[in-house]
Amino acid sequence: MKVHRRFLNPIVAALLSVFILAANAHADEPLDDLFDRLKSADPRAASRLEREIWNEWSKSGSPAMDLLLQRGRDAMAAGRTAEAIEHLTALTDHAPDFAEGWNARATAYYQARQLGPSVSDIARALVLNPRHFGALAGLGAIYEELNNPRKALEVYRAALAIHPHLRGVSEKARRLEAQVAGTEL
């Protein structure tokens, strides 16, 4: 039986897309399990699960991109914010679909007191990873700084819906609930 070449390419493309979709469907399974367990975990277990989630989020799939992320984080930890932004900008340029690159650069911009670029990068991180409780917590902190307690509270609640034991966020949400309730009188 002779197969015509013009029919072969669409068939191969269709099969490849099925395999790619199947691979992508399984890519989030470890994270899905971690998030499921996080919702019902006690505070100690939640802390361990959070570290595991951050570890998964920090894997770009490329050793070179992982190195840029680590260099950016190291520069931030050393207080070299401009250097961190440079490394993380290279990361987001070369791996635009890597949510943690955007989140890390948002943190560097925040440390540099550049709130506009920080919010922009948080938005990009959340588009790529809607469950990024760290990005949500950062956005809540920015809304607080911008004196928008209602919006900060809304974002903190969204973060807590994902990670009920997120350090410091429950306290911030309670404080803001009292503040927002007091302004409604």
From TrEMBL:
One of its GO terms (molecular function) is molecular adaptor activity. This is Tetratricopeptide repeat protein. It comes from Pseudotabrizicola algicola. Keywords: Repeat, Signal, TPR repeat. InterPro entries: SGT (IPR047150), TPR-like_helical_dom_sf (IPR011990), TPR_2 (IPR013105), TPR_rpt (IPR019734). GO terms for biological process: post-translational protein targeting to endoplasmic reticulum membrane. TPR repeats lie at residues 133-166. Gene3D superfamilies: Tetratricopeptide repeat domain. SUPFAM superfamilies: TPR-like. GO terms for cellular component: membrane; TRC complex. It comes from the Bacteria. Residues 1-27 form the signal peptide.
